[in-house]
Amino acid sequence: MTYEIDREAPHEMVRRDFLRRLSMASAASLIASEPKRLLTASDQLDSPEASTLNPVATADACILLWMGGGMAAPDTFDPKHYIPYRNGLPVAEMLSTFPAIETSVDGLQICQGLENLASVMDRGTLIRSAIQEDLGSILHSRHQYHWHTGYVPPQTVACPHLGAWIARVLGRRDSFIPPFINIGQRLEGVGESEELKAFTTAGFFGSEFGPMNLPYPMDAAKAVRPPAGMTEGRFSERRKLFERLLDSSPDRRKLSDYQTQSILRSLDGVHKLLSSKDRHAFDLSLEDEVSRSRYGDTRFGQGCLLARRLVESGARFIEVTTEYVPFLHWDTHANGHETVARMHREIDAPIAQLILDLEQKGLLDRTLVVVASEFSRDALIEGVPGSSAADQATEKVDVVSAMKHYGLHRHFTGGTSVVMFGGGMKRGFVYGKTADRRPLVAVENPVSIADLHATILTALGISPKTGFDVEGRPFYVTKDGHGSCVTELFA
Amino acid sequence: MIHSCIVLIQLGRPLALFVALIALASHSTFADAKQAIDFSHEVVPILRRHCVDCHAGPQAKGGLSINGREELIDSGTVVVGEALASELVSRLVAEDADIRMPPPDRPQVSSKESLILRRWIDEGLVWERGFRFDADRYQPPVKLKSVNVSHQTESAINPIDEILRRENYIAENAVSDELFYRRVSLDLLGLLPKVDQSREFVADQRSQKRQILIDQLLTQSIDYADHWMSFFNDLFRNDYSGTGFITGGRRQITNWLYDSLRENKPYDAMARELIAPIGDETSGFADGIRWRGEVSAGQTVEIQFAQSVAQAFLGINLKCASCHDSFIDRWKLEDAYGLAAIYSARPLDLYRCDQPLGRVSSPAWLFPEIGQVDPDASRKDRLLQLSVLVTSPDNGSFSRAIVNRIWYRLMGRGIVHPVDAMQSEPWSEDLLDFLAQFLIDNDYNLKSLLRLIVNSRAYQSESVQGNGRPDDTFRFEGPMTKRLTAEQFLDAVWQITGAGPEQYDATVSRDKFDETAGDLPRLQADWIWGSSAAEDSVPPAGERIAFRKIFNFETVPHKAGAVVTCDNSFQLFVNGSYLGTGDNWLSPEGFIFTDMLTSGENEIIVVGNNAGDSPNPAGLFFEAQFTMPAGNTLSIFSDASWNYSGDVSVNQKDLHRDSTAEWQSVTVLKPLNVWEQAVERLAPSVLHRVVSGKRLMARAALMKNDPLMKSLGRPMREQIVTMRPTDFTALEAMDLSNGDAFSETLRNGSLKLLRDTSRPIPDLVVYLYEFAYSRKPTPEELEITLQYLGAKPNENQLSDLLWSIFMSPEFLLVR
Fold it and tell me: Given an 8 Å threshold on Cβ–Cβ distance, is B320 in contact with A264?
């Protein structure tokens, strides 16, 4: 097996003398310590397959708008027959709890409550046939893990988040903004936080490619400022002192150690970010009041605004979440209709505004915005172990007897909607289709997580077969390298 | 496709044909049929599911073993490239139940699976290089292996070195004295060596000096307990804050754990007291966390008990088996539930993946070969029986798990790694089982184990770099370079700057046990109360009375200190001024009040409060010690000479007394046993500590978790997480570079250093280097730092130097 020498390494080893020396001294250890990238056919430029396997990027950046908790497609982007609430409504008749509205695309309807989004659907591609594997009893954190890493937990190695893969393969754009930023998800103090942390990680790539977590977008600027009471001048003098001392340390012969490198590179990255003008991208107070208010005052809305500012300044991969907290937000186990109505309000204006702003700034063409969730919902019971998606649509109770029962309260993996904007995707395009009667499974062009990832990665110029040698076995960005790009989605 | 149809038609099973066609059709819709068969991900799971139980590992029923490709071909059941001619395939669909495989009583190979197997054979029986079904199913023997060594102690040839040499593991170069001291001090006590002690050690010419140092470090039982609290808190998921406490769904074992470590309680006894709780002080482990709201069947407290006991004490992961039979090891759903049922106070229904199975699990533990719990015994007895079985010397997994954890902590990598996957093969079975047996033979004395390991040449050799990831081909070449843990990092910073916090959150009676105190004062105080306690009557709940003692000094003492406790609480006033309070009568409080005394008359007032809803015992214990200018000591203590009054009240910290207050003689009580015990155990050292002015540093291990420690890798302890990160993360770099909390720590540290030090600045720099790195600065380093600091540095400049020192790999790593 042959390996590629880490192409990213040389230009990450920056200006400073000690780091330059470090890079000379440690090329060997770099190769030895990190997972090694596998040389594939795509890397051989004279290979006949190179042009298809080594895709040409149609996007430089990706924003994943994560609808954590399970966004019901029939109540959002895939309306079915609507029946309003009434006491005694047979559950079997309850398909959509919102009526459909027209969009800017002829013949395309989405659910009432998403009027702003309806007006920008002509900029997007709507996949209605995304499917997920049934992982036994359907659990959010496992499906979120699966969606974000491409692998079903548990795994014998720590799987990297999609953002970490992108960070590892593409690195930063021409800015000091960390290549993987995670906005809006608290990882402490919320339910299942350990499970969330399990995939909010660079896994075997090491923390260097891990997420910069900004759970509160309004406070993001604080994360990139010198500490309270320290001037920027002093911050930079301190850094110089550190470098000079490191450079003259008798310990420097050990600078090639992998742990030492992880220390130095982490510190270096922070210093560069804090001393560059890129840090202003984090500061929402620099956004004018009118444009800030268009995004609403929710954390998700402000997160979308932050994502836009970061992309403008050269961020690579950003996830903005409505936040997964068990039984909150999209995790509508009860009172689904009213909760989803609130979620409509939370996402509708910010996403539409993000698309319009990116377009107006000329960034939409090279920025891929993806709206996705770990699975959809249905009014009927979720899967039981070993069941297929069709089995997930079996009844639990017969009739709706109170408003709080009105909604799509059950997990469903057989047909989920994903919206993609910009980044080389077609405009005003709908792909795939779900049945109009239960089970609402994808009946046309099913798109698995692996294929969806392959599509996103291809747009970013990354082969879905990109692999690394991990603990002696090949590990690929899409499961076993099998994800295949849905080429029909590209403009 | 047509090919496979023919087979089925030949076998005369039209229904199967129909199913197969459907399966094939749907398969080709969703996956790329052109793709070659993926052995690891498509074939192996099928073989595992249906074949390996009887035809792999040591099993070779009917003479068929599929451990490796060669064996499979040699068996003659497969014709490579010709699925249709292969017995393996025809047997899958054979009508005859005697020929059919798998046997009819087992789940059958589905048509989709059978198609994959046929394609696999047709495509040439592709096999992953090196893969064997018997290789990854290592099964640790229940009992320990007997390992012969020529010496059983750390003297002469350390048995660890003997075993390693025998197995050709070589750790070459001895680490320098300076680095050895730093390493062993951090590993055993979590502290940096002090500068003068380090110099002394290096200068020491005795050949046994390392052994002497180790023995001395291990006698520092407070520092030892402080440090190992982190390790055992991680292991037993004990913490001072976190999920569950707010609703009373979780209980700490902090005090018990701290005392156990301080006393070096045998590890098997610790385990027994946790598995079969001896009372509220140890029940926190077994009772786990009662989560709010509904939890899945896999997170009930009963199942948590099974998971925690298995993981913490046996290194066995029952988390998979808590929902269904494990895919990764031998444990089954019933094993997890059996263990849970031992703990359960009610009949425990079996659930698979949250679906009830309609069966009740029977209490049983994991290794019946060494004995079993009586399912009909009471819950209490079942737990006792379990605690004895777990800690039985016949149960190798108990001793192996802990020695492996300790080896990991000292050496940076377990003999089995990761340490919670004890089903994996150790890189040296002899070493693991020798250490396990050594621990048993030494009555589970953890300090003996530590002493043995750190005395080995293996431990005392130069550290080597791991590559940060597990590796099947691991070879021991010396201890791995380790990162300072979150707690070690903060402790070291506080040690060097002298500006750590004074208070800590753990309610341990820590510095009240200072053995270094020498002769402790003999206390003479009586327990006193008012007339409500006279003649053995019981004081009413809510009673509040003030106790008073007036005394005279001709000259003011050099030092005045007191120890006070009161059932239930008190406020202390000296000459009318508030001094302090205490509300835990089990934990006497110490006070210094030298500055509050005058020559002539002095007055002490203690306001005591009795809590509760109904009459209950109340009492005050007070003793003060004064060091007089002449060098002699005097004492004042609660006794019959004190007075009390009910006409005194306290508002916040102000004392209000009625001018007409009547003062009466107190009642001297016959103290309760618990009062006497608390006072006997703690009060002398508290008084000694305050009078002598010795104060132990707060340790990070005793503080609540905070964002900085979290980013430095201290786990949340809502689950058992026993390994700390090896890498340095971007998040940490941010918290340490621009986080306000750490910045403030540095600022306070430099202010303190500048205030306290009388050293010239160059000497201060040398001191910092020696403390932080265990070496002097080079002339070049000295020049750079002095240039930065200037002749008269301010706290900013010194902070910056401290930051540069603390961020250097030389400081952050334990080499």
Answer: no
Backbone angles phi, psi at B451, to 5 degrees: -60, -45
Q: Chain B residue closest to A236 (CA)?
A: B800
CA distances from B352 to A253, B434, B698 (A): 56, 39, 47
B685 shares a domain with B542? yes
pLDDT of residue B467: 60
Nearest to A409 by CA among A333, A312, A315: A333
B445 Rama sector, left if φ>0, alpha if ψ -120 to 50, beta otherwise: beta
Domain stops at, among B692, B720, B738: B692
Query: Do B249 and B116 belong to one domain?
Result: no
Closest by CA position to B653, among listed B544, B561, B566, B580 = B580
pTM for the whole structure: 0.68
Q: Which residue of A has its CA nearest to B776?
A: A250
Same domain, yes or no: B305 and B380:
yes
Tell me the nearest-neighbour CA distance from B635 into chain A, angstroms: 49
Provide the residue range defining the domain that includes B118: 2-122
* Domain CATH code at residue B619: 2.60.120.260
- Which of B390, B413, B440 terminates a domain? The answer is B390
Higher pLDDT, B542 or A318: A318
- Whole-number Å distance between alpha carbons of A301 and A303: 5
pLDDT in tens, A256-266: 677 788 888 88
Q: What is the pLDDT of residue B787?
A: 96
> 3-state DSSP call for residue B142?
coil
What tens digit of pLDDT does each residue of A36-47 get? Answer: 676 554 444 444
Domain count within chain B: 4
Residues of B in contact with A484 (CB under 8 A): 32
SS3 A166: helix
Q: Compute the distance between CA of residue B797 and CA of residue A294 in angstroms, rounded to an integer.
A: 45
Going by DSSP bridges, is the β-strand pair B589-592/B633-637 parallel, antiparallel, or unpaired?
A: unpaired
CA terminus-to-terminus distance, chain A: 37
The percent of residues in chain A predicted with pLDDT above 90, rounded, is: 56
* Residue B501 in domain: no
Give residue-wise pLDDT tens across range B593-622.
988 999 999 999 999 999 888 899 999 999
Q: Is the dihedral of CA B591, B594, B596, B597 positive or negative?
A: positive
A120 to chain B nearest CA, in Å? 31
Same domain for B739 and B677, yes or no, is no
For residue B805, list chain A residues with Cβ-Cβ distance below 8 A.
245
Residue B220: inside a domain, yes or no? no
Check whether residue B671 and residue B735 sit in a common domain. no
Amino acid found at B450 = L
User: Are B687 and B784 contained in the same domain?
Assistant: no
In whole angstroms, what is the distance from residue A133 CA to residue A440 CA?
A: 15
The pLDDT of residue B796: 96
B624-650 burial, b at 16+ Cβ within 10 Å, e below that, comes to: bbbbbeeeeeeebbbbeebbbbbebeb
Alpha helices (runs of H) in B412-561, residue ranges in sequence order: 429-441, 446-454, 486-497
- Check whether residue B259 and residue B358 sit in a common domain: yes
Q: Is residue B351 part of a domain?
A: yes
Contacts of A257 in chain B (CB under 8 A): 465, 481, 809, 813
Checking DSSP bridges between strand A212-214 and strand A180-183, what pairing results, if any? Answer: parallel
Rounded to whole angstroms, the Cα distance separating B616 from A69 reads: 53
Same domain, B332 and B252: yes
**pLDDT (mean) for B527-533:** 94
Distance to chain B for A107, nearest Cα, Å: 28
DSSP code of residue A483: -
Q: What is the ipTM of this complex?
A: 0.70
Mean pLDDT of A430-449: 95
CA distance B614 to B355: 49
Residue B128 falls inside a structural domain: no
Strand duo B544-553 + B600-609: pairing: antiparallel
